Amino acid sequence: DADVTQTPRNRITKTGKRIMLECSQTKGHDRMYWYRQDPGLGLRLIYYSFDVKDINKGEISDGYSVSRQAQAKFSLSLESAIPNQTALYFCATSGPGRASQETQYFGPGTRLLVL
Amino acid sequence: AQKVTQAQTEISVVEKEDVTLDCVYETRDTTYYLFWYKQPPSGELVFLIRRNSFDEQNEISGRYSWNFQKSTSSFNFTITASQVVDSAVYFCALEDPGGYNKLIFGAGTRLAVHP
Predict the structure, then answer these.
(1) Which residues pair with B10 in a beta bridge?
(2) pLDDT per residue over B3-38, tens digit each?
(3) Could you give the CA distance from residue B11 to residue B4 in angstroms, rounded to a whole number?
(4) Per-residue pLDDT for A1 more than 90?
(5) A46 closest CA partner among A89, A5, A7
(6) What are the distances in angstroms from CA A52 to CA A22, A27, A40, A75?
(7) CB-CB: which of A50, A90, A109 is closest to B100?
(8) Are B43 and A88 in contact, with CB atoms under 8 Å apart?
């Protein structure tokens, strides 16, 4: 089984709809992240979390919110989806513990299309 | 400001050719980490290497090798005797010094290896 899973893997939605992307990990890591990938721009950080009580905005958090329901679960919500949020979304984890300079491991990605 | 530049947007080679993917970074920190990830056509992100700024020795892993040069702020990736399976987008990344293991990604280089 994959260590970092994302659901759904593909999603088509309409402008104005609220959607949630979910991420679960079995690696026992404390840190979790949400990135989006756009062609020619690489990956950009949306939100990150050090533990259940720690949520931080990344480079491009506007229009997004997150919830860290448990150490292993980190959800990304688009409150009112718009077409320029069409992208490939990745969840990532790193750890163990609170040490820095650890490798990030990525989920398989969620392809989101907003019509 | 921290920044990663991958100036090569796309590279096309014929199988068995050697190919080098360039990565130039900017950072004010003396201690930092650099990464390479591979994104095959299936879309997932595969971790390739993590290198800290104190270790300037070149790294070799099979057909893959990395050349880290602090003097030129570069961390280049070479694939020897390329194969069709090497076709992917390759991302270079720099760890943000603010902690939390946040990564700053370059825009990526798309490598196409033709038979």
Answers:
(1) B110
(2) 999 999 999 999 999 999 999 999 988 888 899 999
(3) 18
(4) no
(5) A89
(6) 15, 15, 33, 12
(7) A50
(8) yes
What tens digit of pLDDT does each residue of B69-106 get? 999 999 999 999 999 999 999 999 998 777 677 899 99
* A chain contacts of residue B50, beta-carbon cutoff 8 Å: 101, 103
CA-to-CA distance for B104 and B115, rounded, in angstroms? 33
Quote helix, strand, coil % in chain A, to nearest 5: 5, 55, 40
Cβ neighbours of B99 in A, within 8 Å: 100
Task: Please tell me if residue B95 touches chain A, with a CB cutoff of 8 Å.
Answer: yes
- Provide the pLDDT for residue A98: 46
CB contact under 8 A, B106 and A42: yes
Interface with B, mutate which of A101, A105, A110, A112 (most B CBs under 10 A): A101
Give the pLDDT band of residue B58 (cuts 50, 70, 90): confident
Interface of B with A in 8-37 (CB under 8 A): 9, 33, 35, 37
